[in-house]
Fold this protein.
Amino acid sequence: MTTPILPGAEPYFHEGGAHGVLVLHGFTGNPSSVRSLAERFAGAGYTVLLPRLPGHGTSVEDLMTTAWDDWSQAALAAYDEVAAMCPHVLVAGLSMGGGLAAMIAEQRRVVGAVLINPLVTAPGADMSEGVRQLLEAGVETVDSIGSDVKKEGVAESSYAATPLGCVASLFAGIKDVEANLSKISAPCLVLSSREDHVVTSDNGDALVENVSGPIERVWLEDSFHVATIDNDQELVESSALAFAAKVFS
């Protein structure tokens, strides 16, 4: 028996024109956190795919059966699906989705990447060691990292707990992404919240310092981590659309 998909966590697809956009959500979240962005891309006439990554949008127990290889392979397969329909593809992602978008830009041909509070650097040894010690002590989950939103009355649809085994896998996978940032030659738009309690802005710094292609950065002054549903949502979406129009021209 499969776990039901949470309301609003369904994947999204819109068949538009010859230009394609792949949108990726974050760790422990689901498509609902970036659906509005995907819909804005669709409204601009693009073909848009927003997949639900393995283990997400159902239950924490489902997530605990998955790992970085599952999420990264699903993201690459989604890119290949869009690329089969569209000769030119832009990738966009929030948080881990931004890390996955960066990974795709390292491994596939993209016209550009929109990276929103992306996770692209592995945390320090102290944090990784802390996760390892908790796992060895039999601790499987910690409190949720989701719904870091400043806007009153807005909450992200995310899991109520964070599986530590998945965190360890995520950290290991991001190490490879970080090591290959210089392979990104496509234009990048990085959107960084000044105050982010989940992914620090030095991840954006790493992109600015290491990618080999042109890069723009927009600072979000009134949002926390999940900026796609926060006070700066309109700035995120309008900046992404303007960037897409430029790289697709």
Q: What stands out?
A: The first strand starts at residue 12 and ends at 14. The two ends are 47 Å apart (CA to CA). Strands lie at 12-14, 19-24, 47-50, 88-94, 112-116, 141-143, 161-163, 188-193, 215-220.
